[in-house]
Amino acid sequence: MVLNIWFGSLILLLVGMFSNAIGAFIGVNIGTDVSNMSSASDVVAILKANKITHVRIYDTDAHMLNALANTGIEVMVGVTNEEVLGIGKSPAAAAAWINKKVASYVPSTNITAIAVGSEVLTSIPNAAAVLVPAMNYLHKALVASNLNFQVKVSTPQSLDVIPRPFPPSTATFNSTWNCTIYQLLQFLKNTNSYYMLNAYPYYGYTTGNGIFPIDYALFRPLPSVKQIVDPNTLSHYNSMFDAMVDATYYAIDAFNISGIPIIVTETGWPWLGGANEPDATVENAETFNNNLIRHVLNDSGPPSQPTIPINTYIYELFNEDKRPGPVSEKSWGIFFTNGTAVYTLSLSSSNRITGNSSVTYCVVKQNVDSGKLQEGLNWACGQGGANCTAIQQGQPCYIPDTYQNHASYAYNDYYQKMRSAGGTCDFDGTATTTTVDPSYGSCVFTGSTNSSTSGANFPPVSPGPISPEGGSSSSSFQASIFQSLLTAALLALILL
């Protein structure tokens, strides 16, 4: 028995060492309230072309999970809010859910987490009583399938569960949910899982009545006279993002529970807003996400937990134009569905960017009728004289196989060749110009000045799995160290 305990502790130590060596990651949420949603295979092609290693989907869509198979991309799947009530009342329903929607896809699809509901406590408070039971039933089903070490269970909550998040050191959860949150934290602690937080500095700033400067929300440095300081701890907060994460750590600590890391399951900034949303701009969205990526990938945590990286998922991959509400609600995407970046995204680990502002490109407008696009595509590749070889099957720009993507390539090729002779970017009102380079992966649009830096390539962050195209040498080296240590442990066990 002592030997088993020793060996188990050693394995946990080795896994912990390996996990800490890997560092933080940036992932992306994939919402599907999109009019012209690309096929699952096309979405995965965009992910792979941009080296995105972690994604969160809000359900368990079979097409998406199958398309993600054998990519190595780590996937967080979701129990919808509508499913929480049923699962929370029935262990059998939880077991069936795991068997059908998780176990049947792994290991080909690299599912590593289950998000149970979305902001359940604030969006469907009547389900609070069954939230933790649902998580327990799902975890027990994972244990029965021998998947509990690979797949973690948690539940994303908004910052609204903390009524007064500033100063962070005095933050506590809304006492209305004390019983549920205590049970939740105990579950996360016992299963070695993590707290999922949706943290939006955009809303913290826009609803703050001018209390905080916008630079604080955008990760911009503040002059010493304007720095944000917690009066109790004297900790300096350089970003509202860190303050939100720290408020959650302090709220957890108020229950005398520690050792639960926080993962940010949603954050971002809208790039377009209505007349009463002046802060939803391309410039602000670009600044926020650029600075967010740099901040997360430096592996540092907030002031109260400086050694715990803040793994984060950006909200979101595409603009969900079908979502109800203000203009900003439909404008959080970092890509259009054809894989074109909405704005320049600087990548701190490689210094590559998504665009080249010195060149103007011609691309398809959003929400254009496919019939008109087909007509424009046929004209550009025929009478217009565009070179459309790259969008043929098997060629680098064929995927995503959509009228939007193919027409953008053809329109741009025509425009770059003919604009000096009077050619325009109109195509019967279906096209527009942009300074954002629409190139992605190995698909290079005419006019791109540096094919090696074109495309909306996310940084090849170290925590990502090794892709079929190959992984970084540092990741391979870390893996070999882990394997060597594990081998040594097994040998030690045999010798004992």
Automatic annotation (TrEMBL):
Which InterPro entries does this chain map to? GH (IPR017853), Glyco_hydro_17 (IPR000490), Glyco_hydro_17_plant (IPR044965), X8 (IPR012946)
* UniProt-annotated stretches for the region Disordered: 452-471
Pfam families per record: Glyco_hydro_17 (PF00332), X8 (PF07983)
What is the enzyme's main class? Answer: hydrolase
- Name the catalysed reactions: Hydrolysis of (1->3)-beta-D-glucosidic linkages in (1->3)-beta-D-glucans
Keywords assigned by UniProt?
Disulfide bond, Glycosidase, Hydrolase, Signal
Source organism, top-level taxon: Eukaryota
Q: Please indicate if the UniProt record lists Nucleotide-binding as a keyword.
A: no
This enzyme's EC code(s):
3.2.1.39
Q: Where in this chain does the record put each X8 domain?
A: 360-445
> What protein family is recorded?
Belongs to the glycosyl hydrolase 17 family.
Name of the protein: glucan endo-1,3-beta-D-glucosidase
Taxonomic source organism: Hevea brasiliensis
Ranked from the top, the taxonomy reads: Eukaryota, Viridiplantae, Streptophyta, Embryophyta, Tracheophyta
